[in-house]
Amino acid sequence: MSSKPTEGNPLRAFASQIWGSIFRHGLPTTDKVAARTALTNFFLHVHPVRVKKSAIRVSYTLCLGGLSFFLFILLTISGLFLMFYYIPSVDQAYQNIKDLQFVATFGLVIRNLHRWAAHGMVITVWLHMARVFYQGAYKPPREFNWAIGTFLLLITLLLSFSGYLLPWDQLAVWAITVGTNMAKYAPIAGPYTRYLLLGGRNVGQGALIRFYVLHVVALPLIGFILMVIHFWRVRKDGFTGGL
Amino acid sequence: MATVVGDTSGDTGEGEAVPVARTASVAVRTPRPRGTGPELASMPLVVRRREEEETVVTFPALVWKEFLAGLAMFIFLLGVSIQVNAPLLQRANTAITPNPAKAPWYFLGLQELLERFPPVMAGVAFPSFVIIFMLLTPYLDRNPSRRPQDRKVAIGLFTIYLCLAVSFVVIGVFFRGLAFNWDWTRILGHPGITPPV
């Protein structure tokens, strides 16, 4: 914050003090101010202060990693809204979704947004993986971050898959039946895995509550922790860029 | 701002930009991101450009791009959400099996494999192999170069994998009908929705 004389106006001085206590530096008028702003702002601190120009070219990154994270945030916010209306019970879940579509204000749009953003996130994460591979960005020293990224892709798929069951319509139940049947084929552990996942032999109340808890708590939490490590390592290992 | 690039021995590609005008009178230390210093530059197998590259301050250069990309994505999704409703069929009924019963689209590649190979192979061995192979990729690929012309084998193999994965999903979504048999007539349809025959 530039220290302009504000003594004349106590209100201005007070406002200036509040602003200055939140934002330590003003708008990025010079590189130095911009660097200080980035350093002292919690959210901006996700980024390094300086990067190679070639590393952030849109034609190089295609913004895919950032878009995946943006969709994760969008899904979290729209998902929170949906949670106000949704009860994970086989007797009520379907009606809750109908209410969202026809009764709740903007319920339909937000459910649609959640659904399409989920599909979008599967696509962007997948494309991000392809982008990183084609540019050889997984090579040392970034081997381990590629592994974390692989787990993030799996978490994304599982998040989408667990959300698929929640509307409790024919599409949901049978997609999950088919999907979990695949787990059954693993030797020895297969049937147990499926039983553990569904909380029973069929897709019922046990499966619904398990998928709900996985979808709204467990998987987002694991995903978030992995994302934090993923971003941190991007910073520490340096950006690639400049093929 | 006029800058000179210092610390050329560090060969990190991220030289410290020191304002020319102020170096003499005021000690200005432009912060360099930690962990990108010389200690990481000496990592093995990393091909780095020897010449110094131009750097920019991430705020606002990168933040601005991220903001615009996010905004564009949000507007696009909002538009789609206003136009296209998420599917909702009849209430779940475990007594009525839809035909065909399909997994979510991103698992239709696996379902396609299940049609073609024994379940232990398609449901367990293939996906496990893909995941383990993905995790090991950076350790198996000993080629230090990142340039596409030096990585023909890796890029070729990965492209084959991508094409197979995408085509299996496309087949599963659009070209599998009753009892998961080939179906060329009902190309448009969501998994699980089967118009009456």
Range of strand content of chain B: under 5%
User: Uncertain runs of chain A with pLDDT below 50, 5 residues or more?
Assistant: none
Largest sheet properties of chain B? 2 strands, antiparallel
**Amount of helix of chain B:** 40-55%
**What is the radius of gyration of chain B?**
27 Å
Judged by helices, strands and strand pairing, the structural class of chain B is mainly alpha
Arithmetic mean pLDDT of chain B: 76
The rounded distance between the terminal residues' Cα atoms of chain B is 71 Å
Count the strands of chain B? Answer: 3
Termini separation of chain A: 39 Å
What would you call the shape of chain B? flat
CATH architecture annotation of chain A? Up-down Bundle
The CATH superfamily of chain A is known as: Cytochrome Bc1 Complex, Chain C
Whole-number tally of structural domains of chain B: 3
Strand ordering within the main sheet of chain B: 1-2
Largest β-sheet summary of chain A:
none
Let me know the number of strands of chain A: 1
What general outline of chain A do the C-alpha atoms trace? globular
- Number of contiguous helices of chain B: 6
Largest interface: A-B, 96 and 92 residues
Layout: helices, strands, pairs:
The complex is a heterodimer of chains A (243) and B (197).
Chain A: H1 10-22, H2 31-40, E1 50-52, H3 58-61, H4 64-85, H5 93-102, H6 107-134, H7 143-165, H8 170-183, H9 189-198, H10 205-237
Helix pairs in contact in A: 4-6, 5-6, 6-7, 7-8, 7-10
Chain B: E1 3-5, E2 17-19, H1 20-23, H2 38-41, E3 55-57, H3 58-83, H4 108-116, H5 119-140, H6 152-174
Antiparallel strand pairs in B: 1-2
Helix pairs in contact in B: 4-5, 4-6
How would you describe this structure to a colleague?
The complex is a heterodimer of chains A (about 240) and B (about 200). Chain A is mainly α and about 240 residues long. Chain A is about 70% helix and about 0% strand. Chain A contains ten helices and one strand. In chain A, helix 6 (about 105-135) runs antiparallel to helix 7 (about 145-165) and helix 7 (about 145-165) packs across helix 8 (about 170-185). Chain A is globular, with a radius of gyration of 23 Å. Chain B is mainly α and about 200 residues long. Chain B folds into three domains: about 5-40, no CATH class; about 55-85; about 105-180, no CATH class. Chain B is about 45% helix and about 5% strand. Chain B is built from six helices and three strands. A two-stranded antiparallel sheet of chain B has the order 1-2. In chain B, helix 4 packs across helix 5 (about 120-140) and helix 4 packs across helix 6. Chain B is flat and about 65 Å long. Chains A and B meet through helix 2, strand 1, helix 4, helix 5 and helix 6 of A and strand 3, helix 3, helix 4, helix 5 and helix 6 of B. Strand 1 (about 50) of chain A pairs antiparallel with strand 3 of chain B, so a sheet runs across the interface.
